[in-house]
Amino acid sequence: MMYFVEVENRDMKHTLHDPYSETETLYKGSVTLVLNAVSDFRFSLLPNHPRFEDGCIEPYVSRIVIRRIAEREEEVIFRGRVIDMVQKMSSDGLILKEFVTECELAYLIDSKQRAWEHHGLTPRQYLERILARHNESVLGDSTGNKEIHIGNVNITHASTVYHTTNDTSLKHIKDLVGILGGYIGISHDGTRRRLNYQREIGEIHNIPIKLAVNLKSIRSQTSSSRAITRLIPLGAERDDVSLAIARLRAANIIRSDAFERVWRDTTNPTPWLSQLLINLSRLRYGPDWTLSSADLVEALEVLVHLGVMNSPDYWAARADRHAVEMSLPWQLHHLLMIAAGHALRNEPKLDAPRTRLKLAGDEDYIDATEVSGAQRFMETTVEGTIVWDDVTNPDELRTKAEAWLRQQSVSNSVTISALDLSLIGESSDRFCVGNTYTTHHPILGIDDAYRLIEQTIDLLDPLKGTLTFGNRPVGLGGHISR
Q1: 7 with 99, same domain?
Q2: Domain span at residue 286?
Q3: Which of 187, 18, 188, 9 is nearest to 82 (CA)?
Q4: Do 248 and 333 lie in a common domain?
Q5: Which residues lie below 8 Å from residue 224, measured CB to CB, with a gap of 6+?
Q6: CATH number assigned to the domain comprising residue 172
Q7: By 3-state DSSP, what share of the chain in percent is helix, strand and coil, each rounded to 5?
Q8: 209 inside domain
Q9: Is residue 206 part of a domain?
């Protein structure tokens, strides 16, 4: 098994590592492939390498491709870009250039989403919207094509409300995975780069990892830092105009009873106006007036910039300005002006009111000890929240919360240094991130199937590779009994 590395810079391709070459070889090279995260490739060159001084390796411009060739089969195991370069000389006079490369999933760090609420979307539709914003941001980037299109998505979930902030596209995608589970990854379809989001990946392989066979070292770690012993379940957002008016009054944006009275007497207010009031109630407000003139259109433009209104609603409001002012004349005008003038532009939005439990004594939480079949982890109280966006009934919310507490688990990861016997012809199968393998260690009491979540490969000496298996859920009761 051999590894070959190419670097591409402005449509020019060069060999970076060829194990059969005398000069085009790396001094060091190690790639770390990680499940559901950004993989990286770190390498270094000596001055005798043809690429050391020719300028073809530039941060954020040069692209790297690593190919694995074994028994006439070729597989691309890494695609990415160079992000860092360090030139150094050691105490013994050795001169090196060291580089860090990150995989194509990191392109999603380069774009920012916008603060907004997305209603009635499936996971696929939500991802399509995130990727559309990303592709718009990186369109025409001078460092090369960084567009990513939707690929295979088989995660199903009821359409719900998603919130985006001014964070990176990758952060929003990883947050989605954190809620719904599953696995993300980049694939190539001809000339297009695609994001896949799947419920399950990989295969179950019959490659046992055993003492005296292929196991070099092993470390098992059980993490309980995210265990919850007191759950505060939250349901769907309550898009209620009355609640919105109450919050605006508390923020001193609505300053009299007149607005609420006029609103209550208004028949069939336009839908965009109802949503506008709800969105306004989620902004944070300060005491300072910032607008220079009392103009309704200017106020609407500020609200579009703040993410309170979308562009179609803005233009609908402008087109219907006369009707709006006739239905809610000075009260609406005054409200929009005050809200636009006092809104804090760089502050995160307030959480929307959500459906909560209704228990005796105004309690809105459930202790694990109160749920039959649930285990309380240790003798301590750790509060946590779980959100079910599709639940509007408090009784249904309680049912889901109790079921979650019964199924709660802690994670167990196993870091293994193992021999890949396929490298010496003793096995036809090789390790691959995402696949599941059986691990045996009778002394440590380990005998279970684990998914390979991280693999480090030394391109110059593959026998030095490290495998990390983990994220096998362990029930709290089982963990305590050990």
Answers
A1: yes
A2: 241-342
A3: 9
A4: yes
A5: 377, 378, 410, 476, 479
A6: 3.55.50
A7: 30, 35, 40
A8: no
A9: no
Indicate the length of the chain as a whole number.
482
Q: Which amino acid type is present at position 131?
A: L
Residue the block writes with tokens 């090369």: 144
Q: Residue 210 domain-assigned?
A: no
Choice among 86-95, 138-147, 373-382 with the minimum mean pLDDT: 373-382
Average pLDDT, the chain: 78
Over the stretch 402-449, which tens digit does the pLDDT of each residue have?
888 877 766 666 676 666 655 555 454 678 899 988 777 676 666 777
The per-residue pLDDT for range 103-131, each reduced to its tens digit, is 999 999 999 998 887 888 899 999 999 99
Residue 410 and residue 481: Cα distance in Å, rounded? 13
Statement to judge: residues 94 and 114 lie in one domain = no
Number of H helices, E strands in the chain: 11, 20
Task: Label residue 316 by pLDDT band (50, 70, 90).
Answer: low
Q: Is the pLDDT of residue 271 over 70?
A: no
Helix pair angle (271-280, 241-250), 10° resolution: 40
Please check whether residues 365 and 415 belong to one and the same domain. Answer: no
Residue 70 sits at the vertex; the CA angle it makes with 64 and 73, to the nearest 5 degrees, is 80
Structure tokens at 86: 């360090």
Is 250 part of any domain? yes
Residue 42: give its domain's CATH number.
Answer: 2.30.300.10
Number of domains in the chain: 5
Instruction: Please report which helix (H) or strand (E) contains residue 310, including its range.
Output: none
Structure tokens at 339: 């809200």
Question: Is residue 282 domain-shared with residue 219, that is, in the same domain?
Answer: no
Q: What are the residues whose beta carbons fall under 8 Å from the beta carbon of 453, sequence distance 6 or more? A: 34, 35, 36, 413, 433, 468, 469, 470, 471
Residue 129: phi and psi, rounded to 5, are -70, -40
Token pair listed for 389: 């966006």
Q: What are phi and psi of 296, to 5 degrees?
A: -65, -40
Same domain, 379 and 422: no
- Predicted model pTM: 0.65
- Taking Cα atoms as reference points, which of 154, 174, 162, 175 lies closest to residue 126? 162
